[in-house]
Design a protein that fits this description.
Chain lengths: ~110, ~110
């Protein structure tokens, strides 16, 4: 069974601070996704990374896929209250697979 | 608006009740999914449908019964549930089971008394 460990589990920061959350596994994934889930809503896909070492940027969010495709990080610059939510990583074990393996998530609170 | 809607948004039921959750997608997708999201646990894939055919049943107890009458609608029929079944039930859809981009609905918050 492939597992994804996310850290930290909870994070509370002041508006304007930078932060990094992590998603780690001992297994290799063909691709990895990051979602944000707000209270009372379903997860919304932010990005998919597929190549080892790949870096993708989405405004103030920077996503990196590890060289060995076993881990990923999400860095947020100058966090804003609108960034508050549950950040989930999910991995696909092989190309063409639909069985996403999810981590438990990092719950981020950005205080104005 | 994600294009995937779920009703009801909240449901409280007793262990002897029978209820159904409904999911509808307006994206023209061919694959639909049911997930369970419990506190302190990762999202768990329950069922997968592709073109109305069930392609995955991840050892889900028989008290959960899915139904996919067409590619736009997905139901989860519930009967004789247990309190530990209380969770957020999420529906998702994707273009097909090969596409790795899934679109989630807002979920149904289920409480079993």
């Amino acid at each position: 069974t492939q597992l994804l460990e996310q850290s930290p589990q909870f994070l509370s920061i002041q508006e304007g601070e930078n932060l990094t959350v992590y998603c780690n596994s001992s297994s290799v994934f063909s691709s990895l996704q990051w979602y944000r889930q707000e209270p009372g809503e379903g997860p919304v896909l932010l990005v998919t990374v597929v190549t080892g070492g790949e870096v993708k940027k989405l405004k103030r969010l920077t996503f990196q896929f590890g060289d060995a495709r076993k881990d990923s990080s999400l860095h947020i610059t100058a966090a804003q209250p609108g960034d508050t939510g549950l950040y989930l990583c999910a991995g696909l074990p092989g190309a063409g697979s639909y069985q996403l393996t999810f981590g438990k998530g990092t719950k981020l609170s950005v205080i104005p | 608006e994600t294009g995937v809607t779920q009703t009801p948004r909240h449901l409280v039921m007793g262990m002897t009740n029978k209820k159904s959750l409904k999911c509808e997608q307006h994206l023209g997708h061919n694959a639909m999914y049911w997930y369970k999201q419990s506190a302190k646990k990762p999202l768990e894939l329950m069922f997968v449908y592709s073109l109305e055919e069930r392609v995955e049943n991840n050892s889900v107890p028989s008290r959960f019964s899915p139904e996919c009458p067409n590619s736009s609608h997905l139901f989860l029929h519930l009967h004789t549930l247990q309190p530990e079944d209380s969770a957020l039930y999420l529906c998702a859809s994707s273009q097909d089971t090969v596409s790795n981009e899934q679109f989630f609905g807002p979920g149904t918050r289920l409480t079993v008394l």
